[in-house]
Amino acid sequence: MTIQFKVNYNVSADELQGKSVLVFLKPQNPQRNYQIHAWQVLAGAPGTTESFHYTPQISTDVTSRDIKDSDIVSGRKPVQPGQLLAAVSPNGMTPPLLQPGSTSLAQTTLTPQQCGVINHTNPYIQFDSNWYVNDRPVVTMPQVDSHMTVSFEHLPNFYFMVASPPRVGQTYIVQNFSDMTQYVMPETVTEVDVTVHRKQGLWHFDFSAS
Q1: How far apart, in whole angstroms, are the C-alpha atoms of residue 161 and residue 23?
Q2: What is the pLDDT of residues 1-43, one digit of tens each?
Q3: Which of 25, 54, 130, 166 has its CA 20 to 30 A from that of 174?
Q4: What is the pLDDT of residues 128-158, one digit of tens each?
């Protein structure tokens, strides 16, 4: 199911100057060291409407480092809730290769709502686990060690904030969610209208679902 969000900017040019609307998806049970990405970065202009779509399609890849300490990223793989992928390194290959993991291991390490990656590299390669929804980054889980499993799950809850556009590669910490406006999407919704406005110096978001 695909849901369309329409963001309406009921603000003046001076109020929005140098600012963007950022939208985040929050992983379930996030750890303090997780690197959170702005899932949507909306440019926005006063008096206009900007759209984005949400479909619960999850994918993942891993980032490791070569001998020059440069980042190298594996091929990205789609993954379903309840599924475990194994990162392997045949013949010491870098970056690691993601392939389907053991079904029995998935059943013992994941809930039916979680997707997972286990580090089965041999020789051992430490990596960061990256998770995407609709091919847009949501979270990076750093420093996955040998035989360690990381899991990803999110609810269709959206977190909005007005801030300066993120720099290339910029991430956020879990504590930033306390500064955001949460929207819990009702079931059987296909479209959500979001109105951005400012009142007494504070940013507000109003939501209307249909």
Answers
A1: 7
A2: 899 999 999 998 888 888 999 999 999 999 999 999 999 999 8
A3: 54
A4: 999 999 999 999 999 999 999 999 999 999 9
Neighbouring residues of 71: CB distance < 8 A, sequence distance ≥ 6: 63, 64, 65
Cα–Cα dist 210/176, whole Å = 29
35: nearest Cα among 102, 118, 130, 164: 130
DSSP string, the chain: --EEEEEEE-S-HHHHTT-EEEEEEEESS--TT-EE--SEEE---TT-EEEEEE---EEEEEEEE-TT--EEEPPPEEE-TT-EEEEE-GGG-SSPEEEE--HHHHHHH--TT-EEEEE--SS---EEEEEEETTEEEEEEEEE-TT-EEEE-EEEEEEEEEEPPPPTT--B-GGGGGGSEEEEPPTT--EEEEEEEEETTEEEEEEEE-
Q: With beta carbons less than 8 A apart as the criterion, state whether 18 and 65 touch.
A: no
